[in-house]
Specification:
The protein is mainly α. The chain contains 20 helices and 13 strands. The chain is 43% helix and 10% strand. Helix 13 packs antiparallel against helix 19 (476-483). The structure holds glutamic acid (GLU). The site of glutamic acid has 8 residues, from helix 6.
Length: 503
């Protein structure tokens, strides 16, 4: 193992990347950058039954969007490639030999039916030191029988021989010392019938050959760590440092966050949209829901780590500086969809107005609406303070056309016999404005009420109704500024013609 920090993210392309996986990749990224180390993307694609086309591409797209950069990857290459396990068979074949020669692994010829039978007899049956003697393998059969079976090309797998009564200690950076007993482990398959390695074997061979210094991965892999540690010992290799990250939990804290939780709670759990090829089902991603990539980075950074201060908004370079393994929590971190929105709002509010105007223009364009810079600027000023997402700022149909419908409740409650007269008077008053901006409109509006002794409640809701059709919304003064006096007057006239007092 070299002294240089080298960490890896090693997804299996079995589906879209859940935010738990993205968080693991992010922590590896932060740790690598903080320590001037290397970050490697390795695709663990030896399980051909679970292989999902497009998953690898999806994974890479997610990282491109988030700005998580790998120093070595299938796309980029590097000095320790190939970076896809399906292209690394020669290494596994080479290294399984040592385990076989030393008696730490053995051939097992049991058919899947025979194994299924055993499991049917007893649900917690496992292949281990107690049972292996009664199974068909190179430990229970004599050498000649094994040779014959191999010569006859009998299908086999290679299993690890877990030693009896051995204590296996893992030193985990998050959890400290974790002790396992070898009796808790089973003789896992290392090489499958198709000749390809299983995850466990390929993973340790590659981590060793790629000189990985720290294995930073989800807690669900902690139970595999003793097997991995043993395999390193059998190979005579030093194991990397272990760092098992806390699980990301459901919003209520009970159990691991799943895509089903996202469906129920109507929040994303994948970074980008994903379509399930067999069912055609589509899941929205954070991107499509309007999250900024830098907000998602910030959200994920805080799911399992905190800086120990009140500071919650962290740009990537600040994370590079402050991130540390010591401040990773050992208990699960609940995903809070409201807090996620809060983060996005913070990022939106902090955007420079010029940048936000351009983003907003694009957003309008996506919705088939062409809007010039000065209008986009006005809409931005109108909608920004309440918005969590840029798409919410485009919910301004009233900017483009006069309302077709008027909010029923406001009509019923506020539109009185005398309303048209008040609105007409106000409409005429608008001609006297020397400057058309939010402040001048507001001050004129207020003096008009005072002068005419009209209450706010008699004019404001009806004016809003006439201009926007809505019962509530953003600053009416700003809306008049955006519409302009003439358009506002036109809308007041239309409303007066269409709406009639109901009592
Ligand atoms: N291929 C494993 C996964 O899909 C990698 C686990 C590990 O990091 O060791 O998560």
């Amino acid at each position: 193992m070299s002294d240089k920090v080298r960490v890896r993210f090693a997804p299996s392309p079995t589906g879209p990347l859940h935010i738990g996986g993205v968080r693991t990749a992010l922590y590896n990224f932060l740790f690598a950058r903080k320590n001037e180390g290397d970050l490697i993307l390795r695709i663990e694609d030896t399980d051909q039954k679970r292989f999902v086309p497009k998953a690898e591409e999806y994974i890479q797209h997610c990282f491109d969007w988030l700005g998580i950069e790998f120093d070595e990857s299938p796309r980029k290459g590097g000095g320790y490639g190939p970076y896809k396990q399906s292209e690394r068979s020669e290494f596994y074949n080479q290294h399984i030999k040592k385990l076989m020669d030393d008696g730490n692994a053995y051939y097992a010829f049991d058919t899947s039916d025979q194994l299924a039978e055993k499991r049917a007899e007893s649900s917690n049956w496992t292949y281990n030191a107690v049972t292996r003697g009664s199974m068909k393998n190179s430990l229970s059969l004599d050498k000649a029988q094994v040779r014959t079976l191999l010569e006859q090309n009998t299908p086999y797998v290679i299993r690890v021989k877990i030693p009896e009564n051995k204590e296996i200690k893992i030193i985990d950076s998050v959890r400290g010392e974790v002790v396992f007993q070898s009796q808790e482990l089973d003789d896992k398959v290392l090489i499958k019938e198709d000749g390809l390695p299983t995850y466990h074997f390929a993973n340790i061979v590659d981590d060793h050959l790629m000189k990985i210094s720290h294995v930073i991965r989800g807690e669900e892999w902690l139970s595999s760590a003793p097997l991995h540690q043993l395999l390193y010992e059998f190979q005579g290799w030093t194991a990397p440092k272990w760092v098992h990250l806390p699980l990301i939990m459901k919003p209520n804290g009970k159990g691991k966050l799943s895509k089903r939780d996202g469906e129920i709670g109507n929040f994303p759990v994948f970074p980008l949209e994903w379509m399930d090829q067999s069912s055609g089902a589509i899941w929205h991603g954070f991107k499509e829901d309007g999250y900024f990539p830098e907000a998602l980075i910030n959200i994920l950074a805080f799911l399992g780590w905190n800086p120990g201060t009140e500071k919650e908004i962290y740009a990537l370079d600040e994370l590079f500086r402050d991130f540390s393994l010591e401040r990773i929590n050992s208990s699960g971190a609940s995903f809070n969809p409201d807090k996620a929105k809060w983060y996005n709002k913070e990022y939106l509010q902090a955007k420079k107005p010029e940048e936000l105007v351009l983003i907003l223009k694009d957003e309008f364009e996506k919705r088939g609406k062409d809007i010039d810079n000065s209008k986009a600027q006005q809409v931005m000023e109108l909608m920004k303070s309440r918005a969590h997402f840029v798409h919410e700022m485009t919910e301004v149909d009233f900017v483009f056309a006069h309302p077709e419908n008027y909010d029923e409740k406001t009509q019923r409650k506020k539109w009185k016999e005398g309303t048209p007269e008040i609105l007409s008077a106000y409409s005429a008053e608008l001609n006297k404005l020397s400057e058309i901006n939010e402040a001048s409109i507001e001050s004129q509006f207020k003096s008009f009420l005072e002068e005419k002794e009209i209450s706010m409640g008699a004019l404001m809701p009806n004016l809003r109704l006439a201009l926007t059709g809505m019962g509530s919304g953003p600053s009416l003064y700003k809306i008049i500024e955006i519409l302009g006096v003439e358009e506002a007057q036109k809308r007041i006239n239309i409303a007066i013609a269409k709406i009639h007092a109901q009592d």
